[in-house]
Design goal:
The model has no long low-confidence stretch (mean pLDDT 94). By secondary structure, the protein is an alpha+beta fold. The chain has an 8-stranded mixed sheet, sandwiched between helices. Helix 4 crosses helix 6. The longest helix has 18 residues. A hairpin with a 2-residue loop joins strand 4 and strand 5. Bound molecules: coenzyme A.
Length: 196
């Protein structure tokens, strides 16, 4: 079982996917600063500027890996910033469910990084006993909403946000989309390494 994944994006770029650790704190704060205001709002639901608060850094980097992980995808040809990152947190009231959240740098969106991150959080959460994942978007975040649907999530609307749900133990429901085909490929390719 490995948590250091040396892989390639579909354009051949060599990348490393790995969990973030407390020593990544400064790099994470700098990556946050480099996001566009739009990506920052879509991921963090806040318009409070370029400086990430300590509470958010603690939320992303802290905790027990059985309950929460944050993964980053790094382009090995450039030291910084990472291409993107994704987290999952178990629901304390129902540890078979986890909330996920992710962001890809604006200039690197559409290269398959988000779908790879979804597969990585899927497998690492599943390994920790999670069988259902839930993600949220603003109604106006059409791109993320379409992509989550394309990746097989069921969508509902609670009057404030869109809610996307996946069952991790059932791949039969994946739709016939490029994103779902990518997701299924990553799950099949990474499962032996990540689930051991
Ligand atoms: C939502 C988000 C994470 C998606 O990440 P991404 O890296 O752009 O996603 P991917 O590249 O894996 O997939 C997205 C696109 O590639 C397409 N795609 C997937 N596999 C493909 C393939 N083999 N060939 C061509 N296109 C493909 C998808 O259908 C999708 O199309 P579209 O967005 O152009 O309509 C990213 O847009 C983002 O960070 N947004 C800001 C933060 C946010 O909204 N987070 C979500 C809420 S937490």
């Amino acid at each position: 079982m490995s948590d250091r994944l040396d892989i390639k994006l579909r354009d051949g770029t060599p990348i490393l996917a790995r969990p973030l650790v407390p020593a990544d704190r400064e790099a994470l704060a700098e990556a946050y600063r480099r996001l566009s205001p739009e990506a920052r709002y879509n991921r963090f639901w806040t318009h409070t500027g370029e400086v990430v608060g300590d509470k958010m850094l603690d939320r992303i980097l802290g905790g027990n890996p059985d309950d929460h992980m944050t993964w980053a995808v790094l382009d090995l040809s450039r030291e910084f910033p990472p291409l993107g990152g994704a987290s999952w947190w178990k629901n304390p009231e129902d540890p078979t469910e986890a909330e996920i959240s992710m962001v890809v740098l604006d200039e690197d969106q559409g290269r398959g990084v988000g779908t790879l991150l979804l597969a990585v959080v899927w497998l690492s959460a599943f390994r920790a006993g999670v069988t259902r994942m839930v993600g949220y978007t603003h109604i106006e975040n059409r791109r993320a909403a379409k992509w989550m649907r394309d990746c097989g999530a069921d969508a509902t609307w609670d009057g404030y946000k869109l809610i996307f749900r996946w069952r991790l133990d059932d791949l039969d429901g994946l739709p016939e989309t490029l994103a779902a085909a990518d997701l299924a490929d990553w799950l099949a390719n990474l499962a032996p390494e990540m689930l051991g």
